[in-house]
Amino acid sequence: MIGLISFIAFTVLVATVSYWLTGKTEETEDGYFLGGRSLTAGFIAASLLLTNLSTEQIIGLNGQAFTEGILVMCWETLAAIAMVVTALFLLPRYLKGGITTVPQFLENRYDTTTKTIASILFLSGYVIVFLPVVLYSGALAMITMFDIPTLLNVSETTALWIFVWGIGFIGSIYAVFGGLKAVVISDTLNGIGLLIGGFLLTYLSFRYIGDGSVINGVTNLYNFDPSRFNAIGGPTSSVPISTIFSGMMLVQLFYWGTNQAIIQRALGAKNLKEGQKGLLIAAGFKILGPLILVIPGMIAYYLFKGQVDLADQAYPLLVKTVLPSAMMGFFAAVLFGAVLSSFNSALNSSVTLFGLDIYKEHFNKSASDKKVVKIGKQFGVLLAILSMFIAPLIANVPDGLFGYLQEVNGCYSIPILTIIIVGYLTKFVPAIAAKVAIISGSVLYSISQFVIKPIFPEGEYPHFLHIMAILFITNIILMLIIGKLFPRDTAYELLDSKKVDTQEYNYAKPIGLVITIVVIGSYLVFS
Questions:
Q1: Tell me: the pLDDT tens digits for 36-72?
Q2: Is the CB of residue 34 less than 8 Å from the CB of residue 260?
Q3: DSSP 3-state assignment of 496?
């Protein structure tokens, strides 16, 4: 009962404070979709972290750590380098161009059709993959920690549907009716709770397995199986070391630099300095990410080896075992907030993409900002309902939630990243090259992973991250050849929109260098 009370109290507190601080959201393009371009570094960093740290990340990555050990830390530590690249290379160009969505750059650089194709790919990925995975993982966490089937005397399937729809409904209210500012404020509040709760869980877990001593806990975990502390993945692991030099960094750069649901926070920065500081602060915290997203999974393996049927249940079971009931209620509220964060962030970005890049572009060019926001909200409700229907259908995916999410995302992540990188680094590659690359990249990757791969014996087909790298290079070469044969008539030039101050943060490069060195050092320690 105490746990339930603390859960409700913290959840209501976040909702109340978010509503109070948001006030009346401006129903203008910048006001609704970018928080009025007024976001400062702290809000940007917190929102970036919590949008990423949802249950598909917390449960999924800890589930992989339960199975394979510390080698999966690359998903966290290498993210810091991608965020540095985004802060130094991509964000200055985004803010100079004054874009609201990433596909808007594609329209400026190539043409409207390219923008539309990219927006449709983003939206398809959100509704078919990302949003359902977030809802399912969140529901799985809640029903495992609170043993909802027993509490409500219902089947696990019924409990799953109840929580999927409950999370989806509440998340939709934040995203659809509050706009980006409401999302960012709730993210920040939940982010503080998540960092406190996440580090506290790791601390208490070490004490639990060390009979009251953290040092003994660390020693016991290491001695239990020292091989699980090797960050160098072998050829049969989920993340072979070779993938770090192929598709891993591409996936990270797409996620942190071009994924609308993530980068929209930085696009709402009041100026470039605040945006860069926000990204770099978040990058610093990502280096510590394994303490929340990897180590608990390894501790769960120490405690529950041979007792857990589904690896993705390991983290919720650890929470239930280690935390006192009152604290478990608070932590459940924090996890609930993390689910809402990723769900409402992707939903808000979907509303943005549809309203600006689909509706206004193709259905009503003269629509007012208020009309665009209204139509976007209606689409957001539809998208939320579709994702709530799909979510329970992805239960028991064979490779775990996190692996499933990363592999399927390749259908649109690498093609979009390709045309953005080529778009910024070249001046004469034409729109037709982008169309060919984005369509061929998506189709070829889908054929590779869902048609050809199943034919091969398990473990004998190239890793999906290697496939991504091969297609990335292939599409770049294809675009450059087309650009050589059919160049643009005039060189592309990125014009300054003057919407925000684009003066760079003075310490951005030195801080970025330090972060990169620390990441490399962490691999030297665990190898």
A1: 566 788 888 877 887 777 767 788 889 899 999 999 9
A2: no
A3: coil
Q: Rounded to two decimals, what is the model's pTM? A: 0.81
pLDDT digit string, tens, across residues 406-424: 788 888 889 999 999 999 9
- Is 87 strand, coil or helix? helix
Q: Find the CATH number of the domain harbouring 409.
A: 1.20.1730.10
pLDDT in tens, 185-200: 666 677 677 778 889 9
Asked whether residue 483 is domain-assigned, the answer is yes
- Domain total in the chain: 1
Q: Does some domain include residue 79?
A: yes
Q: What are phi and psi of 271, to 5 degrees?
A: -160, 175
Nearest C-alpha neighbor of 125 from the set 325, 353, 444, 315: 353
Please check whether residue 90 lies inside any domain of the structure. Answer: yes
Residue 402 CB neighbours (<10 A): 27
Dist. CA 197–CA 233, nearest whole Å? 29
Q: What's the token pair of residue 390? A: 């799909």
Distance CA(368)–CA(26), nearest Å, equals 13
* 413 falls within a domain: yes
Segments forming the whole domain that contains residue 220: 2-14+37-525
Q: Binning pLDDT at 50, 70 and 90, where does residue 495 land?
A: confident
Q: Categorize the per-residue pLDDT at 26 as very low, low, confident or very high, splitting at 50, 70 and 90.
A: very low
CA distance 416 to 124: 13
Tell me the C-alpha distance between 295 and 305, whole Å.
Answer: 15
Listing DSSP states for 124-185 in one string gives HHIIIIIHHHHHHHHHHHHHHHTTHHHHHT--HHHHHHHHHHHHHHHHHHHHHHHHHHHHHH
Tokens of 97: 């161009």
CA 359 to chain centre: 25
DSSP for 362-424, written as a single string: HT-TT--HHHHHHHHHHHHHHHHHHHHHHGGGGTT-TT-HHHHHHHHHHHHHHHHHHHHHHHH
Half-sphere exposure of 478 toward its Cβ, with a 13 Å CA cutoff? 20
DSSP H helical segments within 210-313, as ranges? 214-224, 247-257, 260-267, 272-287, 290-293, 295-304
Radius of gyration of the chain (CA): 22
